[in-house]
Design brief:
This protein is α+β, with helices and mostly antiparallel strands and 56 residues long. It has one domain. Helices cover 25% and strands 34% of the residues. A three-stranded antiparallel sheet has the order 1-3-2, with helices on one face. This is Putative Se/S carrier protein-like domain-containing protein.
């Protein structure tokens, strides 16, 4: 599986992306931004893609 980390400047971006990922049936989790990458609104989305699904 491949993991992607999305960082956001605002909570609005997190909410919009969360809705889009839920509608697409993707596996993800909303979490605090890792300490060494702090910035923006403080939230990030970890997206997990099964092999071959990265381009979906």
């Amino acid at each position: 599986m491949t993991e992607f980390l999305f960082l956001f400047h605002s909570t609005v971006g997190v909410v919009q992306t969360r809705k889009a990922l839920q509608a697409a049936g993707m596996i993800f989790r909303v979490a605090d931004i890792p300490r060494d990458l702090r910035g923006g609104c403080g939230l990030c989305i970890w997206l997990t893609c099964p092999p071959g699904e990265e381009m979906r």
